[in-house]
């Protein structure tokens, strides 16, 4: 990463195009010898920008005059700007009986605002060659906007209008309901959806994550409810903003203030409780009937939290077990040696409220029994004998060596920054992460394998018409 | 930040000039090695990584009668073994050096790639050069070639057989391309795949895998000089096999001469869909018509502002979706589609009537200048956004060159798109969807007795 000279930045920052100002900064021979945070006040704008000279990205942190905390990576080489916003609280905060409410909110955020109806809003986005839209996951509500820097200020005006005066018109709302009605049908033959439902019913049937949209809950939604709920989901005090693009902090700050000016300061949303997935929750294989030639097999065991001292050990172990593509134990045994599958993978899911060590693969119905037998055998082998020193070295070499690939586009840098902010890992996480992986020892890996990969900790969900299951 | 722009034409003019001024920063360098291997270097200095790809000018189109699926199965076998690399070692070396690798096969080409930190580029070239010349195919009748056929069968089940919509599409495309080498889908006819032998694999290797039949694409944080030196060291020393003839089995696709209807029903289908596949075009065969068609179909059925969406989904509320699309990136002519899915309670016949009434109305009345301008600017801007992905850029240049196109075709795309006139756009759509044109109509339905 090239050094960043804040004095030059203050002199040249305003009044130039985004591209030009960043270019001149990088051409300058500024001296910042150590990759440590540097703080300086920009006189003109009064903006305090803390620059983190990281190994993978130079992150500029600042709080806008309006009070919004922003992380920005200035990247001048393509004349585009992407802004991502996230608020804690999502679908799991839907009131009981109103499942689908958060989805209704996000659906309408680009369906008309102010004087612009849905068609006028969409037309305006096309005229500006921009995109803007929102989405909801279980615990987060997110919006993102991408634009060309040449007309970024007009694009931001449109985003601001959407937050200030979203219309929630009857026409788009009725369309949303029609689409939901269709998806209530199509999800019933979606193998991944059915596996997720079986997992929820087996492990946490009474948790908010297990609640599903239904014909009744969709029918109970109204534009007024959605409009009111939007003001609960999208508030200032829980807002996280990240941005990557050909723009400087002093240019971006007023834009962020413009788009967020209308948001309420705070709101009350219910906390999502934690799910306790312990070894005693293991269940007998669940088969979900779906008429198709190939079955989806999902396997699941209790996992561990990101804060767990063994987390990185487990993360490194998972690469060798089933996380590492063609070279993993599971791929080698089930695909390369036995030809049972096109792909089988394992994951460590370390969501704040629910953790598991699981995986999935697909095999023809006739060989589901063989597939699960082979899976159990490989799992038992790694639990009993652990991994070799060479395998551990390979895992570390891949996990650390490939990390730069996660930062080679604006989109990836934006996504990396957002997850670090959501998980509250700290601005230096990217720089610390490889050392945490290097510190993992063979002894720890094999201890964690013996504990967490015991075959009797695993449960199985099969979606399809499997044969050969006891 | 400049605040002088008000959108529309003014935005277009400024946007164009900035894109042109910027071109030199990402325009690739092209050169040839002495053995005929073409090299493309695409600069992207944002991160210290590279995308390294080798494209071979062979695909499913070139397969011999009865050997369908060999191009794709062979691509799997390329990861197995060479005289210097034991089974699994290729992947292991790439991973240990922090790289990811994979490959893909199309009707028109086969491409292998590694993404890696830039200081490992030479190592990756060494690996690709090794399997370009010294592949071993184990001929044990119960060995890895045979188990890889089983992997391909599972791949087919996962991609096609588990998905009723894809099964129907495969049926339609083989009808559309009847008698053309595209008729059989890339993964192949499973009976023929099951009969492929290690000897078939080796014959295919000898016939097509040679440096003069390959294109090297390196995108990332490297200079053309660095790439040239490494490429000469690793690939330049490879002598052409003398057995790779370089001929392709491409042929013009004759327009449909009769209209057909295909119906596929399956218990997994919970939402019907209706499509018409017309004879279309391709960028390689007719670049100007392709671009005009892309613009015209964006206006007719591209997004939420399109004519079909506004009429069928918004106003009449008979559809949940309605789109038009032309598949123009194959070498030979691909289909142009009209497709829609009914709103709850609407019969497919009524949907069809409504869709075709709107299409005919638009063909009759034509487009407005404003909607065509929006569509062409949108397609041109997508080329700017696409530059964010290094592998995307490597793919774009690689596939264009593998089809016989040039780097300039890619660089000129935004300007060529912006030059499409309202008349050209509507003329292209009329040419493809005219009422005298034949088509294949496809109905995807729930199984009998299902709701």
Descriptive key words:
heterodimer; A: 470 residues; alpha+beta; Cytochrome Bc1 Complex, Chain A, domain 1; 3 domains; eight-stranded mixed beta sheet; five-stranded mixed beta sheet; disordered N terminus; B: 451 residues; six-stranded mixed beta sheet; 17 helices; globular
Question: What's the arrangement of secondary structure elements?
Answer:
The complex is a heterodimer of chains A (470) and B (451).
Chain A: H1 6-12, H2 18-27, E1 38-42, E2 47-53, E3 58-63, E4 69-74, E5 80-88, H3 101-107, H4 118-127, E6 131-136, E7 140-148, H5 152-164, H6 170-186, H7 191-203, H8 215-219, H9 223-233, E8 239-245, H10 249-260, E9 286-289, E10 294-302, H11 311-323, H12 329-337, E11 344-350, E12 355-364, H13 368-385, H14 389-401, H15 410-422, H16 429-438, H17 442-452, E13 459-464
Parallel strand pairs in A: 4-8, 9-13
Antiparallel strand pairs in A: 1-2, 2-3, 3-4, 5-7, 5-8, 6-7, 10-12, 10-13, 11-12
Helix pairs in contact in A: 3-9, 5-10, 11-14, 11-17, 12-13, 13-17
Chain B: H1 8-26, E1 29-32, E2 38-43, E3 49-56, H2 70-77, H3 89-96, E4 100-105, E5 110-117, H4 121-133, H5 144-161, H6 164-176, H7 190-194, H8 198-208, E6 214-220, H9 224-234, E7 260-266, E8 273-279, H10 287-301, H11 307-315, E9 319-326, E10 335-342, H12 348-365, H13 369-385, H14 390-402, H15 407-411, H16 413-418, H17 422-433, E11 439-446
Parallel strand pairs in B: 2-6, 7-11
Antiparallel strand pairs in B: 1-2, 3-5, 3-6, 4-5, 8-10, 8-11, 9-10
Helix pairs in contact in B: 2-8, 10-13, 10-17, 11-12
């Amino acid at each position: 990463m090239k050094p960043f000279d804040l004095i030059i930045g203050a002199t040249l920052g305003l009044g130039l195009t985004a591209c030009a100002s960043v270019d001149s900064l990088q051409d300058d021979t500024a001296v910042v010898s150590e990759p440590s945070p540097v703080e300086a006040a920009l006189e003109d704008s009064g903006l305090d920008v803390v620059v983190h000279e990281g190994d993978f990205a130079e992150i500029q942190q600042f709080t806008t005059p309006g009070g919004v905390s922003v992380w920005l990576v200035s990247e001048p080489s393509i004349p585009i700007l992407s802004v991502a916003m996230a608020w804690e609280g999502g679908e799991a905060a839907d009131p009981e009986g109103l499942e689908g409410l958060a989805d209704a909110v996000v659906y309408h955020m680009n369906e008309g605002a102010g004087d612009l109806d849905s068609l006028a809003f969409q037309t305006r986005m096309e005229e500006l060659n921009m995109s803007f839209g929102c989405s909801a996951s279980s615990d987060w509500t997110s919006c993102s906007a991408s634009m060309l820097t040449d007309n970024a200020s007009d694009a931001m005006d449109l985003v601001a209008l959407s937050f200030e005066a979203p219309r929630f018109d009857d026409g788009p709302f009725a369309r949303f309901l029609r689409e939901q009605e269709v998806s209530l049908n199509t999800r019933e033959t979606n193998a991944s959806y059915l596996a997720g439902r079986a997992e929820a019913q087996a492990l946490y049937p009474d948790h908010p994550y297990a609640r599903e949209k239904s014909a009744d809950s969709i029918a109970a939604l109204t534009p007024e409810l959605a409009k009111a709920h939007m003001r609960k989901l999208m508030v200032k005090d829980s807002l996280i903003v990240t941005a990557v693009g050909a723009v400087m902090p002093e240019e971006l700050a007023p834009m962020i203030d413009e788009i967020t000016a209308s948001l309420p300061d705070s709101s009350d949303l219910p906390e999502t409780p934690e799910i306790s997935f312990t070894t005693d929750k293991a269940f007998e294989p669940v088969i979900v009937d779906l008429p198709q030639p190939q079955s989806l097999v999902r396997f699941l065991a209790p996992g561990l939290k990101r804060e767990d001292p063994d987390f990185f050990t487990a993360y490194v172990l998972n690469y060798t077990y089933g996380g590492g593509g063609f070279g993993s134990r599971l791929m080698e045994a089930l695909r390369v040696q036995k030809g049972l599958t096109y792909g089988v993978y394992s994951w460590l899911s370390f969501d704040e409220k629910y953790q598991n060590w699981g995986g999935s693969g697909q095999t023809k119905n006739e060989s589901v029994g063989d597939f699960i037998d082979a899976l159990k055998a490989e799992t038992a082998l790694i639990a009993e004998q652990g991994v070799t020193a060479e395998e551990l070295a390979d895992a570390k070499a891949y996990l650390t060596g490939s990390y730069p690939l996660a930062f080679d586009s604006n989109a990836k840098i934006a996504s990396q920054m957002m997850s670090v902010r959501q998980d509250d890992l700290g601005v230096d996480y990217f720089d610390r992460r490889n050392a945490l992986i290097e510190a993992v020892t063979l002894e720890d890996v094999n201890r964690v394998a013996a504990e967490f990969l015991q075959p009797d900790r695993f449960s199985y969900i099969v979606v399809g018409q499997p044969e050969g299951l006891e | 930040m400049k605040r002088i722009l008000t959108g529309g034409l003014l935005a277009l003019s400024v946007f164009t000039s900035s894109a042109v001024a910027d071109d030199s920063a990402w325009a690739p360098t092209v050169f040839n090695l002495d053995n005929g291997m073409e090299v493309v270097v695409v600069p992207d200095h944002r991160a210290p990584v590279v995308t390294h790809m080798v494209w071979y000018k062979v695909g499913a189109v070139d397969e011999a009668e009865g050997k369908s699926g060999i191009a794709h199965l062979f691509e799997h076998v390329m990861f197995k073994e060479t005289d210097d690399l034991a089974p699994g070692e290729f992947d292991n070396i790439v991973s240990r050096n922090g790289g990811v690798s994979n490959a893909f096969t199309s009707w028109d080409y086969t491409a292998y790639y590694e993404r890696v930190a830039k200081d490992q580029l030479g190592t990756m070239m060494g690996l690709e050069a090794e399997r370009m010349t010294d592949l071993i195919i184990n001929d044990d009748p119960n060995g890895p070639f045979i188990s890889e056929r089983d992997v391909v069968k599972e791949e087919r089940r996962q991609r096609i057989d588990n998905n009723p919509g894809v099964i129907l599409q495969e049926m339609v495309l083989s009808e559309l391309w009847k008698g053309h080498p595209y008729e059989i889908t890339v993964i192949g006819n499973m009976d023929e795949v099951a009969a492929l032998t290690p000897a078939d694999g080796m014959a295919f290797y000898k016939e097509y895998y040679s440096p003069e039949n390959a294109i090297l694409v390196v995108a990332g944080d490297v200079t053309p000089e660095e790439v040239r030196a490494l490429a000469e060291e690793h690939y330049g020393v490879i002598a052409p096999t003398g057995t790779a003839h370089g001929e392709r089995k491409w042929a013009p696709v004759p327009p449909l001469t009769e209209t057909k209807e295909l119906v596929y029903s399956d218990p997994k289908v919970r939402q019907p869909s209706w499509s018409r596949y017309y004879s279309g075009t391709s960028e390689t065969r007719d670049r100007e018509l392709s671009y005009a068609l892309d613009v015209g179909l964006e206006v007719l059925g591209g997004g939420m502002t399109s004519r079909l969406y506004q009429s069928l989904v918004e106003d009449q509320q008979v559809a949940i979706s309605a789109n038009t699309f032309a598949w123009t990136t194959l070498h030979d002519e691909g289909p142009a589609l009209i497709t829609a899915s009914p709103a709850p309670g609407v019969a497919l016949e009524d949907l069809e009537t409504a869709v075709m009434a709107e299409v005919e109305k638009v063909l009759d009345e034509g487009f407005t200048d404003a909607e065509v301008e929006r569509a062409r600017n949108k397609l041109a801007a997508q080329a700017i956004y696409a530059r964010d992905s290094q592998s995307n850029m490597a793919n774009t240049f690689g596939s264009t060159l593998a089809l016989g196109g040039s780097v300039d075709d890619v660089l000129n795309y935004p300007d060529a798109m912006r030059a499409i006139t309202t008349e050209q756009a509507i003329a292209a759509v009329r040419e493809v969807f005219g009422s005298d044109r034949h088509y294949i109509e496809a109905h995807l339905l729930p199984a009998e007795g299902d709701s």
